[in-house]
């Protein structure tokens, strides 16, 4: 993904955003060199 941007992808949870670890969940992620990383710390509200 371009710097400063992210996409939503269904990936294995690591416990981020209070989602139980090990399930597949749609997270905001960045992708680089064939790897993905969950974007930490985004605000959660009713819309999200």
TrEMBL record:
Q: Which InterPro entries match?
A: Lactate/malate_DH_C (IPR022383), Lactate_DH/Glyco_Ohase_4_C (IPR015955), Malate_DH_type2 (IPR010945)
Hey, what's the signal peptide range on this chain? none
For whether the record's keyword set contains Oxidoreductase, the answer is: yes
A Pfam family for this UniProt protein? Answer: Ldh_1_C
User: Tell me, which GO biological process terms does this entry list?
Assistant: malate metabolic process
Q: Which Gene3D superfamilies match?
A: Lactate dehydrogenase/glycoside hydrolase, family 4, C-terminal
The molecular function terms of the Gene Ontology recorded here are: malate dehydrogenase activity; oxidoreductase activity, acting on the CH-OH group of donors, NAD or NADP as acceptor
List UniProt keywords, sorted A-Z. Answer: Oxidoreductase
Question: Where would I find the Lactate/malate dehydrogenase C-terminal domain in this sequence?
Answer: 4-47
Please state what the protein is called.
Answer: Putative malate dehydrogenase
